[in-house]
């Protein structure tokens, strides 16, 4: 039996990165890019066999609370303070096929806009029952979901008075470690989105819209939590490397 996968067959071909869609590395309005953006032309390295066909995460056992940020850091049996949310969505490849068994990780500030991180400098208090990290593995149809509280906006040292809109950071592994994507999710209707220098580094408004989760009243838990849907599109199953420009902010 011949099990070699050729580009263009049912497993999907290589997709070239669309650099007009992704944010450029150098965006002076987002100050730190001025000293970390590459100063030389990028080199294109072919993916190795292990990168393209390496391990996935379908058999990795997760803790039952890994996708429950309301309870997974509880110190006293209580729950995190804040607007309770369900965040869910589908991970798809560029051919709109679900990506099952892939690891989705998420991290965020607490309801006051404060991260649980040793280098965090914002004066908003920590919530003793909120850690701010979780993970999930997509099901057979590519869906992930988790419970959390809505993160607060927070100020950051960029311009004189810049604030990040409420957001959740995401990491998604495709079918191999080399396919890791890091991005940020925003909340529908938030006016702060359009004032953010990091969001402003995305050249196409449609690209920004794709980062905004939609309020989904049909999947709320009555008297408990609102729901937001955030779908994520990866490039083809045998994609070249993603770049991760928005990490850590
Ligand atoms: Fe952040």
From TrEMBL:
Domain Protocatechuate 3,4-dioxygenase beta subunit N-terminal: 15-48
GO MF term list: ferric iron binding; protocatechuate 3,4-dioxygenase activity
Annotated ranges, domain Intradiol ring-cleavage dioxygenases: 53-236
Domain of life (superkingdom): Bacteria
Pfam families named in the record: Dioxygenase_C, PCDO_beta_N
Entry keyword set: Dioxygenase, Oxidoreductase
Any GO BP: 3,4-dihydroxybenzoate catabolic process
PANTHER family to which the protein is assigned, alphabetical: DIOXYGENASE, PUTATIVE (AFU_ORTHOLOGUE AFUA_2G02910)-RELATED, INTRADIOL RING-CLEAVAGE DIOXYGENASES DOMAIN-CONTAINING PROTEIN
Family: Belongs to the intradiol ring-cleavage dioxygenase family.
Name this protein carries in UniProt: Protocatechuate 3,4-dioxygenase beta subunit
